[in-house]
């Protein structure tokens, strides 16, 4: 929301739902102070009533779960515990490796890397 004139969360949600004719919207706060994170990589619908949410840290995830539960109380929220990415960190470039919901969806199955 910083990129949009510091619009209050509830105002942004109302503008989004009105403009797109949606019933509900959630605002997922970035976990990255440099803005690398994208909501589509942090939360993903796996069917019409279920979301998977990346597990980053307990404090951050508590805020994400609170926003999702208040915005979509009817949905099930499943958390994927992601592997520790510290061994893949390279200070020469920014990467989202290990910091996003990475999965393949088929008709009956959800495949996630381990």
Topology (SSEs and partners):
Blueprint: H1 9-20, H2 39-42, E1 43-47, E2 50-55, H3 58-71, E3 76-81, E4 104-105, E5 110-111
Parallel strand pairs: 2-3
Antiparallel strand pairs: 1-2, 4-5
Tags for this entry?
single chain; 114 residues; alpha+beta; 3-stranded mixed beta sheet; two-stranded antiparallel ribbon; 3 helices; globular
Structure description:
Helices cover 26% and strands 18% of the residues. The protein starts with 8 loop residues before the first helix and ends with a strand. The protein has 114 residues and is an alpha+beta fold. The chain is globular and about 40 Å long. Strands 1-2-3 form a 3-stranded mixed sheet. Strands 4-5 form a two-stranded antiparallel ribbon.
């Amino acid at each position: 929301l910083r990129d949009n004139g510091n619009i209050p969360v509830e105002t942004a949600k109302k503008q989004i739902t009105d403009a797109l004719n949606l019933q509900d919207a959630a605002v997922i706060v970035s976990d990255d102070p440099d803005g690398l994170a994208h909501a589509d990589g942090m939360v993903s619908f796996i069917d019409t009533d279920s979301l998977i949410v990346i597990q980053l840290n307990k404090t951050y995830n508590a805020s994400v779960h609170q926003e999702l539960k208040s915005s979509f109380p009817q949905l099930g929220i499943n958390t994927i515990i992601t592997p520790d990415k510290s061994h893949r960190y390279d200070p020469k470039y920014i990467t989202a490796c290990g910091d996003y919901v990475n999965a393949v969806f088929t008709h009956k199955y959800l495949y996630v890397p381990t």
